[in-house]
Amino acid sequence: MAAKIPATVITGFLGVGKTTLLQHLLKNANGKRLALIINEFGDLGVDGDIVKGCGIEGCEDDDILELSNGCICCTVAEDFIPAMEKLINRAEPPDHIIIETSGLALPQPLVRAFNWPEIRNRVTVDGVITVVDSAAVHAGRFAHDEALIDAQRQGDDMLDHDTPLSELFEDQLACADMIILNKTDLLTSEDVAALETKLKGEARAGVQFVRAKMGAVSPATLLGLGVGAESDMAGRHAHHHHEDGDDDHHHDHDHDDFETFQVELGAIDDVDSFMDRMKQVIIDHDILRLKGFAQVGSKPMRLVIQAVGPRVDHYFDRPLTEGEKGKTMLVVIGHAGLDHAVITQALQG
Length: 349
What we know:
Elements: E1 5-12, H1 18-27, E2 34-39, H2 46-52, E3 64-67, H3 76-88, E4 96-100, H4 107-112, E5 123-133, H5 134-138, H6 148-153, H7 164-175, E6 178-182, H8 189-200, E7 208-211, H9 219-222, E8 258-266, H10 271-285, E9 289-295, E10 301-308, E11 311-319, E12 327-335, H11 340-348
Parallel strand pairs: 1-4, 1-5, 2-3, 2-4, 5-6, 6-7
Antiparallel strand pairs: 8-12, 9-10, 9-12, 10-11
């Protein structure tokens, strides 16, 4: 029997740097045939397009599959299994499959899906990598015991340890074989050490911790863990329990707590003023994530925009296609109840 194809699951909250980690991985693959499955939360395939537009030699568009019909943990039968079969049934299957979950996906049911009859004899989970925004967690955001953001949203001083964001973060830590402390350059070495000590107390025993800046972790570190996580679910507990064998995969992880919508605008005239306006909109409406593309004036290059909370990154990645010219396309992600019309008008300026 042929050896199983290893697959690495990369999980982590919105904006922790998973796409940057993927780009670094692709650029340093050294001839290894990698295939990607990207689970984009929202209508606009932002993460997939960023990776496809990277211009990396050997990274072909058909090596990247996007699942944009919902959270990957909710659509295992409809989307994930067919995507895996498409990859492993190729004449030349990939050497390694990388799966980037959306910021709202639970890793546990995805790992269990590797036991489905269609793929269990041909693919194995090499390891689950959880990426952490070190600065955000140090500041008390998206941590299970310091739900500071949710408490501030509700306008009171009480900490709620059972909010969806904190539980999701805890589930991602519980499932991890390796935890990447990303964005460590934004903290002092003492703060990073304290954060690592804290998270070690919340993760499973023996989980590896890796410190990183800008997602720069070598493939030799990330790949080849050989865990076989689908056969090692003991201890990877989750707050949200899925019923094994349930064809519909119903569960109590309620994505109605979150809301996503798309904004289409014209080309922007000035990058700095638009970024300032976007930062203000994020603050005013408590937006978790805002990302997308824009044309700047008559420039032929596409501007990529990635915002997590008040931090906004932007860069030009590739020439605009005909369908992208004259447009700004953004996806807004936040808690339920966002005022679409007001946010759209504010972004228009």
